[in-house]
């Protein structure tokens, strides 16, 4: 009789947990985040001067490079920076890349959770832990599995021709994704790189950006 009572409760708890996880994933999907590290020595009189973006180097697709440059123009324009010609005081260069890495993450071995949460930490805080002692709450087993992760990087450097082409701004924005979608997220990386422009020298911060619908 006790097992007959507990079985429906366990099943109910499982579905409540799955529902909570789906809602959590829906909320997380509306935002995107990146780690941004900034080094800057921005002259006070440079904010009104115009910039130019250097041409693509050999080995880069011209069309792809211009698409990335357009994303930077939008991000820089939002901070009041205006594009000029090749004789502009501010010279902008950038590089971008996506590197495939492998990480080990915790995953629920229980089939009720597989498919919904590939990473075990997604259920942190929902009351499912290792202290299950046979009560109502169900505790699925956690296992470590290898996962391929793409590390997406955008670096932007601005130099000042009035100071002997000295570097005055150097920012690197890094994000991770489970598929090779660097060009798709370049607009977000560009926005993150200039989110708190010019920012504090030597500061690393995590920038969250609302995704486009």
Keywords:
213 residues, alpha+beta, six-stranded mixed beta sheet, 3 helices, 33% strand
Number of domains: 1
Examine the coordinates and then state which fold CATH places here, giving the name of the CATH topology: Double Stranded RNA Binding Domain
Mean pLDDT: 78
Tell me about the biggest sheet? 6 strands, mixed
CATH class category: Alpha Beta
Structural class determined from secondary elements = alpha+beta
According to DSSP, the number of beta strands is: 6
Radius of gyration, rounded? Answer: 24 Å
Shape: elongated
Termini, distance in Å?
50 Å
Helix content: 25-40%
User: How are strands sequenced across the largest beta sheet?
Assistant: 2-3-4-5-1-6
Strand content: 25-35%
Q: Which spans of ≥5 residues are poorly predicted at pLDDT below 50?
A: 5-28, 114-134
Please trace the helix and strand order, writing H or E for each element: HEEHEEEHE
Count of discrete alpha- or pi-helical segments spanning 4 or more residues: 3
Instruction: Please name the CATH architecture.
Output: 2-Layer Sandwich
Brief summary:
The chain has 213 residues and is of the alpha+beta class. The chain is built from three helices and six strands; from the N terminus they run αββαβββαβ.
Structure description:
This protein is elongated. The chain has one domain (2-121, 136-210): Double Stranded RNA Binding Domain (2-Layer Sandwich), CATH 3.30.160.670. The longest helix is centred in the N-terminal third of the chain and has 28 residues, at 2-29. Strands 2-3-4-5-1-6 form a 6-stranded mixed sheet. With 213 residues, the chain is of the alpha+beta class. It is built from 3 helices and 6 strands; from the N terminus they run αββαβββαβ.
């Amino acid at each position: 009789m006790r097992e007959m009572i507990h079985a429906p409760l366990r099943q109910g708890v499982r579905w409540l947990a799955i529902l909570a996880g789906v809602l959590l994933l829906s909320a997380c999907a509306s935002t995107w985040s990146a780690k941004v590290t900034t080094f800057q020595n921005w002259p006070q009189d440079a904010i009104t001067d115009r910039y130019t973006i250097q041409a693509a180097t050999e080995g880069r697709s011209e069309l792809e490079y211009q698409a990335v440059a357009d994303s930077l123009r939008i991000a820089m324009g939002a901070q009041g920076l205006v594009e000029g010609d090749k004789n502009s005081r501010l010279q902008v260069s950038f590089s971008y890349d996506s590197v495939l890495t492998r990480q080990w993450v915790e995953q629920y071995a229980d089939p009720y959770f597989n498919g919904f949460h590939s990473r075990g930490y997604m259920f942190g805080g929902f009351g499912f832990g290792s202290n299950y002692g046979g009560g109502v709450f169900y505790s699925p087993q956690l296992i470590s599995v290898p996962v391929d992760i793409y590390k997406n990087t955008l670096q932007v450097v601005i130099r000042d021709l009035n100071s002997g082409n000295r570097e005055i701004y150097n920012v690197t924005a890094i994000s991770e994704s489970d598929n090779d979608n660097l060009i798709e997220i370049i607009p977000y990386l560009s926005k993150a790189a200039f989110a708190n422009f010019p920012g504090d020298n030597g500061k690393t911060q995590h920038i969250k950006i609302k995704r486009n619908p």
